[in-house]
Amino acid sequence: MHQKWSHTTEVEVETMSSTYSFYIETIEVNRLSALAFFAAGEKQFAGKRFYWQNREKTFTLVGLGHAYKIDNNSDEDRFDGIEKQWKELTKNIVKEESEPQPILFGGFTFDPKNDKKGEWDGFPQSFFAVATYQLVIRDDKAYVSIHLITDRENSLDEFEQLRKERDELIHAAQVKELKTYEKPRMTSYDELYKEEYLQTISRVTGLIQANEAEKVVIARTLKMKFEDTLTSPQALSHAINEQPESYLFGLEREKMFFFGATPERLVKVENGFAYSACVAGSIKRGKTAEEDQALGEGLLNDEKNLEEHQYVVEMIANTFERNCLEYKVPKRPKLLKVRDIQHLYTPVEGKLTSGATILQLVKHLHPTPALGGVPRKEALSIIRENETMNRGLYAAPIGWVDAEGNGEFAVAIRSALLKENQAYLYAGGGIVADSEPFSEYEETLVKFRPMLRVLGGQLHE
Ligand SMILES: C=C(O[C@@H]1C=C(C(=O)O)C=C[C@H]1O)C(=O)O
Ligand SMILES: [Mg+2]
Description:
Elements (H helix, E strand, L loop, with lengths): L1 E13 L4 E11 L4 H7 L1 H4 L3 E5 L5 E14 L5 H13 L12 E6 L17 E13 L2 E10 L5 H21 L9 E6 L2 H16 L5 E12 L5 H11 L4 E7 L2 E7 L2 E6 L2 E12 L4 H12 L2 H21 E5 L5 E5 L2 E12 L5 H8 L7 E2 L1 H11 L10 E6 L4 E5 L3 E5 L2 E10 L5 H19 L6
Antiparallel strand pairs: 1-2, 2-7, 3-4, 3-10, 4-6, 5-6, 5-18, 6-7, 8-9, 9-17, 9-21, 10-11, 11-20, 12-13, 12-19, 13-16, 14-16, 15-16, 18-19, 20-21
Helix pairs in contact: 1-4, 1-6, 3-9, 5-11, 6-11
The chain binds the ligand C=C(O[C@@H]1C=C(C(=O)O)C=C[C@H]1O)C(=O)O and magnesium ion.
EC number: 5.4.4.2
Pfam families: Chorismate_bind
Family: Belongs to the isochorismate synthase family.
């Protein structure tokens, strides 16, 4: 079953209050389906799993179990707090040539100052974990690592148990590889607060016309119920099949599973370079190639959408200006097309200054005006006061960082929170001075489509 064994390393971890050992062992496995590995953890690890695949499909990550968990409810310093803990934990790790390193995966909520009650109650403002069993697939190779972080003296027996369990999980995944999942059967579909949403768009447009802000993103929720409880692998399998052109992500915490298929990168850091993306301005896909092209051309020349887009470009360029030695921003947007929707898209990249890290970039970038607004502070308070929901992880940064500081965060849109037999889907859009309630409403219908396909709900035409 295994091609190559690596040695087990033990790394000392010292924090302010205690000393631990961090045991790591990585093996290379012949072939392994990421979804099947995720599903193999259904019994022992439901509630403690995560899944990630980048848009290019060159990097896939699955985690089962928590070797280490950060549940953090503080507000202002949450990005710094995660960074500090992760640095402490990984400071003594020495990079092994070509082998994946331990990865911290998780997300930050959209707005810790939003205290509206709802489906996200109990979810911490930052939630990250190092998996007990970590699968990394890259360059067509699959690696499974065991992580054990403990302050117990003699952990060899415990580690031996983990090896056994790892082999069982790999075996179960190889057996299950071709399993297919049924689409869930929907029993109800409810556009929550639709009227309030339409009124909010008018009100916020008014506030913008009165110069209270320049752009504000307003979102809404769609609630679905199903005949049976949906499992996370079942939901994820349909996201994987229906939305192959997007990032795929899934994060479990106890009974909650937040997952989605987003086209939007927040930031990626690789070997001292940073990559971000301005994604704002939207139109549906055409039914024919001609119609699709015409819609795209229209979008590239539409003033309202170009305005929505330009706020994002300015803000991301500004952040790169402050964190990079040099950086590039194309003059005009191009189109980013995924199955159900096309967006205006401007990629930004730069060479980082020595102090800039991925978590610092996430801290400065979030929320970009693609999900928050301009000016940021005013937009966030307008969202807090006017939106009928608490976004939780929707529209927020989700992703990973490794011990060397490489990593990637996406913006968690085109997403849904699954709780047993219920799902909450989220979609929003950028409101500017000349936004119109009904066309914003229609834009959200297009943005609900990816998750509606996944969950088997009705599709509005
Ligand atoms: C807010 C969402 O999407 C964002 C808003 C967009 C817009 O208003 O044009 C486009 C892409 C995203 O940055 C969403 O999908 O829910
Ligand atoms: Mg828009």
